[in-house]
Design a protein that fits this description.
Order of helices and strands: HHHHHHHHHHH
Largest sheet: none
Number of strands: 0
Distance between the termini: 51 Å
Strand content: under 5%
Structural class: mainly alpha
Radius of gyration: 23 Å
C-alpha cells in the first residue's frame, strides 16, 4: 500500500475531505432555515404584541437547527429499530401509546390554532410537549440504573455532552438577558430553559449513579471481564445480582 510522500499534502487532503463532507451535509439547511424565517413573521408579530416591541426574539439560529438535526437522528434510529436484529426486544405498548397520544394531541392543537392563526400559542404547546417527552425519555434510564444497581453499559459520555449543552443553553439565555437588561426572553421561550433544567436535573442523577452509587460495582465488572471477549458485559440479572451480593 502506497504512503504519503508529504505530510503537509496529507493534512491538506484530510482537511479538504472533511470540509467537503461537512458542506454537503449542511447544504440543505440554509434553504430550510430561510423558509422558516419567511413563514415566521406572524409568530414574531404575535410575540411582540404579547411581550412588547422593545424585546428581542429569544430564538437563535442554533434553536432552528436543533429540531431538524434531532428529527434526522430520530429517523435514523427508527430505521435501525426496524431493520436491525432485535432478538426478543420489541417496542413496548406503553411507548406506542405515548407516541400516538402525543401526535394526536399535537394535531388537535394545530387544528385549534388554525382558524385564529394562534401560532405563538401553538409554538408554546410544542415546547411543552418537548419538555414532557424529554422527561419521559430520561426516566426509564434512571429507573433502569436503579433496579440494576449498576451503570455498566451506560455511556456517561452522552451525559457529559448533554449536561454541557444544558448549562450552555442557560448561559446563552442569561447573556441575552444581561445584554438587554430584561429577563422576558426566559418567559417568551419558556420551553428552552425548562428543557435545559430537566436535562441538567437528570444528568445530575446519572452522574450520582455512575460516579457515587454504583461506581465500585461498575469497576469490578469491567475488571473481571476478559478484554478479548465478545460476550455482553452483563449476561443476565442473576449475574448482576451475584456481583451486587459479593460487593
Amino acid at each position: 500500500m502506497g504512503s504519503w510522500n508529504s505530510i503537509s499534502m496529507e493534512i491538506i487532503y484530510q482537511v479538504l475531505g472533511w470540509i467537503s463532507i461537512i458542506c454537503w451535509a449542511l447544504a440543505s439547511y440554509p434553504q430550510v432555515i430561510l423558509n422558516f424565517r419567511r413563514k415566521s413573521s406572524t409568530v414574531q408579530r404575535q410575540y411582540f404584541d404579547k411581550y412588547g416591541y422593545d424585546q428581542m426574539i429569544p430564538v437563535a439560529l442554533s434553536d432552528v437547527f436543533f429540531p431538524f438535526h434531532s428529527i434526522l437522528l430520530i429517523s435514523v434510529v427508527s430505521v435501525q429499530i426496524v431493520f436491525f436484529d432485535r432478538g426478543n426486544q420489541k417496542v413496548s405498548k406503553t411507548s406506542i401509546a405515548i407516541f400516538v397520544a402525543v401526535w394526536f394531541f399535537a394535531a388537535a392543537c394545530f387544528f385549534m390554532a388554525l382558524p385564529t392563526h394562534s401560532w405563538l400559542w401553538l409554538v408554546s404547546i410544542f415546547n411543552s410537549i418537548q419538555v414532557f417527552m424529554t422527561f419521559i425519555k430520561y426516566s426509564p434510564q434512571a429507573f433502569l440504573n436503579f433496579t440494576r444497581k449498576s451503570t455498566v453499559g451506560f455511556s456517561i459520555g452522552n451525559i457529559v455532552l448533554d449536561f454541557t449543552g444544558g448549562v450552555g443553553t442557560l448561559a446563552q439565555m442569561s447573556v441575552q438577558s444581561i445584554d438587554q437588561g430584561s429577563w422576558v426572553n426566559f418567559f417568551g421561550n419558556i420551553g428552552k430553559p425548562l428543557l435545559a433544567l430537566v436535562s441538567i436535573g437528570f444528568d445530575l442523577i446519572f452522574f450520582y449513579q455512575h460516579f457515587v452509587l454504583y461506581h465500585i460495582k461498575a469497576s469490578r465488572v469491567s475488571f473481571q471481564r476478559d478484554p478479548e471477549s465478545t460476550e455482553p458485559l452483563i449476561k443476565d440479572s442473576d449475574h448482576l445480582q451475584g456481583i451486587a451480593t459479593t460487593s
